[in-house]
Design a protein that fits this description.
about 280 residues; alpha/beta; Rossmann fold; 11 helices; globular
Amino acid sequence: MYVITGITGQVASALARNLLAAGKEVRAVVRDAAKGETWQAQGCSVAVADMQDRVALTRAFHGATAVFVLLPPNFDPRPDFPETRAILANLHAALLASHPERVVCLSTVGAQASHPNLLSQLGEMEHVLGQLPMPVTFLRAAWFMENSLWDIAPAREHGVLYSFLQPLDKPVHMVATADVGRVAAQLLQEPWEGVRVVELTGPQAISPLQLAATLGQVLGREVKAQAVPRDSWEALFLEQGMENPVPRMQMLDGFNAGWIDFEGTPRQARTDLQTVLAGLVERS
């Protein structure tokens, strides 16, 4: 039995589809039973559990060969990440009590960075869940190509891609969520000992200039990348409704300065940017 949290998201849904295609038994963990109906129709069993409920999580993980852990995204956390720390305590207790054979956790490029930033939540996850007694793998994935979804409307309407990644000619590691899900499915089925880190990127690093050019090809119009001035970020994020934009700004600074990067040599996935953008444009 393979237990998948976050199954309604892009990575975990791709992971689940890969496992089902391989004939594996999958249990979908959802917060709302209605969201599990689609997966039940595809052959999954369904467990309803909130990340704040360690008893329900323990039941959901019971009898698992392997568990896939995906933290709920929190882009506007309170200082020192109390929400994430509470979830990690629940996950640690539930995994300790249910004791699956192995665990794979979705982490991120730069989780090991010592400078505080939004991705420090994943660094804390590695610290806490890395103390579990069963084998644990942390899959550190590059920047998702699918983050470009938010660039499509301004590119289509105005021919501009507004970039927080800077300078515009600096390549950044990016990967497709379908590849992250595929590799996660492989990792869940592998035997290993202790704690390991697997880093994953796409076929090539991509600069904002390359991203704009590729998006222009897909849209059939010229698209130019334009840097969003660093001194405007805080006011912009506050205007968008964020209460604590500092961690997000620190994360972007880390990508731009280069201290958010892979620790070793990442595995190279196969899906290219144009394929991902074409899919996003078709759906948008």
